[in-house]
Design goal:
Its EC number is 3.4.13.18. The chain is an alpha+beta fold and 483 residues long. 30% of the residues lie in helices and 28% in strands. The chain folds into 2 domains: 265 residues, Zn peptidases (Aminopeptidase, 3-Layer(aba) Sandwich); 192 residues, Alpha-Beta Plaits (2-Layer Sandwich).
């Protein structure tokens, strides 16, 4: 039950996270949560601004005697990724998240939890509300639509922030301080897929790939998890080559920054080949399951009788489309030579949709270097135009270059060591934090990102470790006092 969260410590943070769980806030549908935060700030009597991009800024004066301290911006985003299990009836635009306590974890029933970034937003609200936490001049920046394009950060006006230090509360490994992130770029691939009438004497099937783990296409891309779009395309290519299969439709994935967990297609096969086509799937499913046993043990492949479509994609066009999906750059492309274990460049074949006469594939490219991003673009243009498809790139956002000499980083390292008797880790992250955009708009900001331990964000398996939230909160309070 939701009320379980209200008994957790630190209670102010969990109370605000509980309230955020009650407020629908999928990306692109943030009116209700924005109204909540604006009302919260004004009820406290604090200066509260809402800008044209949907961001909310709340300013709180310094604790008496700390007026001359550097100004600090606490930054979190308001939206959450709307992912749910197959068969789950949850309506993200209207229903509250059903969060519950599971040992030392908080999870959600059948959906993403929204700890990314609800814990960070709840922490900022708890600081704003507190009458006991000491701090210098404070701003809380709640950005809009981070998960679906970072349009809030991109729409931030230069000069609107007064602080000189930005603490981003959107990281997912407690005990790690992040000082850099990857930039991103959207790739949209368009295929012409002329239709033709289905000749008589065919049987229709629906082929489904499901049960994959999915996850964040930056944070989890190095885990070797399967991409449902790639798995399904490979299966269908095999069927087209050996059983005269025709493709009617293909649908997979839902968000650019989530590794697709499910994909499905409607196909037809000549009556005389239908039995052999159906019979090949158990062996293929077993082979794929064995291949993915360590990284994605829940993978399942189903083939069921389907309704006969009125038309199918022309054979050559369908073949080019499926070959393009199978050859699309996907997963880890290059590891960093500078930071051990860090992915430098990656790509996620995130969303695939067919419609009459056309097919679209949407990918998110990430790289921490300009050269790596150019290499990715070259790879896409090498695969798709020769197949007759177009590759358009848009929505690019900058990375955040690490500054190991950051004064606030050194202060935070000492504060963490003082609290917990050990040094925190310092790293960069292969994901698109808003720090890159905000730092580009507001040159000179000293920035560090940190947060509690969150696992499997952007998937229904998402959870936050309760004990890590307490450590994250105590650390935040200590840092605000010492800056």
């Amino acid at each position: 039950m939701h009320d379980e969260l209200l008994q957790l410590e630190p209670r102010p943070l969990w109370r605000h996270f509980h309230l955020l769980c009650q407020t629908p806030r999928p990306s692109g549908h943030e009116t209700a949560v924005r109204r909540l935060v604006v009302g919260f700030g004004r009820t406290l009597g604090l200066e509260t601004l809402k800008d044209e991009a949907g961001n909310v800024i709340i300013r709180k004066p310094a604790t008496p005697g700390m007026e001359e301290r550097p100004g600090v911006v606490l930054q979190a985003h308001l939206d959450m990724v709307p992912q749910k299990d197959a068969g789950c009836s949850h309506d993200f635009a209207n229903d509250p998240i059903e969060a519950y306590v599971d040992g030392d974890r908080v999870r959600a029933r059948g959906t993403t939890l929204g700890a990314d970034n609800g814990i960070g937003a709840g922490a900022a609200m708890a600081v704003l509300e507190s009458s006991t936490i000491v701090h210098g001049p404070l701003e809380a920046l709640f950005t809009a639509n981070e998960e679906a394009g970072m349009t809030g950060a991109l729409g931030l006006k230069p000069g609107v922030l007064k602080g000189s230090i930005l603490l981003n509360l959107d990281s997912e490994d407690e005990g790690e301080l992040f000082i850099g992130c990857a930039g991103g770029l959207d790739a949209t691939i368009a295929f012409d897929c002329p239709q033709e009438h289905l000749p008589p004497g065919n049987r229709a099937f629906e082929v489904r790939v499901k049960g994959l783990s999915g996850g964040h296409s930056g944070m989890d891309i190095n885990l070797g998890r399967a991409n449902a779009n790639r798995v399904l395309a490979a299966l269908l290519l095999r069927g087209a080559e050996t059983h005269g299969m025709r493709l009617a439709s293909f649908e997979g994935g839902s968000l650019r920054n989530a590794i697709p967990r499910e994909a499905s297609a409607v196909v037809t096969v000549p009556d005389e080949d239908a039995g052999r086509f159906h019979g090949m799937f158990p062996d293929l499913a077993a082979a794929i399951g064995e291949q993915l046993a360590a990284a994605d043990p829940g993978c399942s492949i189903d083939i069921i009788p389907g309704d006969e479509p009125s038309s199918v994609i022309q054979r050559d066009a369908a073949g080019r489309f499926l070959r393009g999906l199978s050859n699309c750059p996907n997963g880890v492309i290059r590891m960093s030579a500078d930071i051990d274990g860090l992915v430098e460049s990656s790509s996620n074949l995130a969303i695939v949709r067919t419609s009459p006469g056309r097919a679209i594939a949407e990918c998110l490219l990430r790289s921490s270097t300009d050269g790596g991003m150019e290499e990715l673009k070259d790879a896409f243009t090498g695969v798709f135009p020769p197949l007759g498809a177009t590759a358009l790139f848009s929505g690019g956002y900058p990375g955040w270059r690490p500054d190991p000499a950051s004064p606030v980083l050194r202060l935070m390292q000492e504060a963490y060591r003082s609290l917990y008797g050990r040094a925190p880790g310092v790293s960069a992250v292969h994901a698109g934090l808003e720090c890159g955009i905000i730092g580009d708009l507001c040159p000179g900001l000293d920035m560090v990102s940190f947060g509690p331990t969150i696992r499997h964000p952007h998937s229904p398996g998402e959870y936050v470790v309760i004990s890590s939230v307490g450590r994250f909160w105590d650390f935040l309070v200590r840092v605000l006092a010492e800056i």
